[in-house]
Amino acid sequence: MLEPLLEHKQELAARFRKGGLIFLDYDGTLTPIVDKPELAVLDPKTREFVRRLAMKFTVILVSGRSVSDLVEISGVEVTGFVGNHGLEIKIPGLTFIHPQARRTEPVIAHLCREIRSRCGHIEGVFVENKKLTASIHYRNVLKAELSKLRQIFRGIVKPYLENRKIRISQGKKVWELRPPVQWNKGNAVTWLVRLFNPRKELPVFYAGDDRTDEDAFAVLKGTGITVLVAERPRKSWAKFRARNSEEVIEFLRSL
Q1: In order of start, what are the domains of the chain with their CATH numbers?
Q2: Which residues touch 127 (CB under 8 Å, ≥6 apart)?
Q3: What is the rounded CA–CA span in Å between residue 176 and residue 187?
């Protein structure tokens, strides 16, 4: 059972007296889920709070967005950024892009063009090409059209899946096209924890709302403070639950 985060606020906050690593998913964790990705802008109070938080702790924003998009839309200076579900990492003095992801860029671009062309008549479909990955959003598609969209989408990607040229993951009302490489948010978090916390002296906090955050929850199981952001409980590798982004911010203020 997931434990309510705020009920453990004081005891957990006490662990951060000497610092800590704080990983925050962006969409759905720092900001509520919105109809269009470009609308998920941090409100001024939250942006200022995250800026202050990053002056005291190692704060890293994590997202399925590209790093460049994440930097721009968050508008805040933090220790680092993890983009494209871990395929990109940007920290002071280092920018990492997974080499296999670079090689898959032309395939991702082709599929985005194909999906836009063949699904353009279905209202509400939004194809987001993030270079290393792509997101096919269907949050605004009518239920009556979903079956048709799913059938067309599967027909387009099937040969690429069979030839192992791409992988597909499911998010919140979104299909994610990814390179055929076993590298995710969990791998990125593991690497960054080793870099910033080599002696394992500092506490590690990770909050996320999506299925893709489960990879990070899993690698931090038993060692980190992992928080699923979800209105209702569900099966998760996380230990704690916050009902919404407001509860995440409320906990972080206690630090």
Answers
A1: 3-98+183-253 (3.40.50.1000), 99-178 (3.30.70.1020)
A2: 112, 115, 116, 119, 134, 135, 136, 137
A3: 18
- DSSP states along 124-182: T-EEEE-SSSEEEE-TTS-HHHHHHHHHHHHHHHHHHHHTTS-EEEEETTEEEEE-SS-
User: Residue 172's pLDDT is what?
Assistant: 82
Tell me the per-residue pLDDT of 72-121, one tens digit each, with 9 for 90 and over: 999 999 999 999 999 999 999 999 999 999 999 999 999 999 999 999 89
Going from the C-alpha of 27 to that of each of 30, 99, 128, 209, the distances in angstroms are 6, 26, 15, 8
How many other β-carbons are positioned within 10 Å of the β-carbon of residue 245? 21
User: How many beta carbons lie within 10 A of that of residue 13, not counting itself?
Assistant: 16
